Amino acid sequence: MALSASDVQTVYSLLSDAFSPDLSVRKPAESALAQCERRPGFCSCLLEIIAARDVACRDDVRLLAAVFFKNSIRRFWRQRVISNDEKAHLRKKLLLNIREESSQIALQLADLISKIARIDYPKEWPELFSFLAQQLQSADILASHRVFMVLFRTLKELSTKRLSADQRTFSECF
Questions:
Q1: Which of 38, 59, 94, 152 counts the most CB atoms within 10 A of its CB?
Q2: How many domains does the chain have?
Q3: Which range of residues forms the domain containing residue 13?
Q4: Importin N-terminal domain location, by residue (predicted)?
Q5: What span, in angstroms and rounded, lies between the C-alpha atoms of 15 and 114?
Q6: What is the reported pLDDT for 167?
């Protein structure tokens, strides 16, 4: 069964419990997270937690959510676990949250974007670089810094693709 917006608090609690020094709290949380990981909507719940910047959402839990999200991308993005609609939602929301104040979380977001770009650019994500270029027009120094971080990671990731068709596409674009 798919996870939804109503499950965000449950996923947050599981991530928070995964930090517990008490083994009887931590182990069930880790097990539940491993089960959730294969369910549709899990990445959307994680991104909601990452994007939450209010006082109630701890940065260590947001960072753990980003790490789980990155691992889920690596394991499940190409499989049918994440629907095309959810992927489109995730790509859009990732870009909308590029101006992250926490440097550790911003680094994880840059890695996330680069991992997804490796798989989806240019076919499913043709607007990626035009969006990033548009963000560089802003006078916001933090936003510009985050965009440069994303560009660095993404270009580095794309430049390592080995298939000749991918290399040709990369050289034509850049």
A1: 94
A2: 1
A3: 5-173
A4: 29-100
A5: 24
A6: 63
Which residues in the chain show pLDDT less than 70?
A: 163-171, 173-174
User: Rounded to 10 degrees, what is the CA torsion of 40, 54, 132, 147?
Assistant: -120
As to burial, measured by CB atoms within 10 angstroms (0-12 exposed, 13-18 middle, 19+ buried), residue 119 is: middle
Distance, in Å, from the CA atom of 80 to the CA atom of 72, rounded to the nearest integer, reads 12
Select from 53, 158, 139, 159 the least CA-distant residue to 96.
53
* Alpha carbons 49 and 59: distance in angstroms, whole number: 10
CA atoms within 13 A on the CB side of 29: 19
Please compute, for residue 144, the number of CA atoms within 13 A of its CA located in the half-sphere on the CB side. 6
Eight-class DSSP state of 174:
-
Answer whether 0.85 is exceeded by the pTM.
Answer: yes
Cβ pair 93, 129 in contact under 8 A: no
**Token couple for 82:** 């994440």
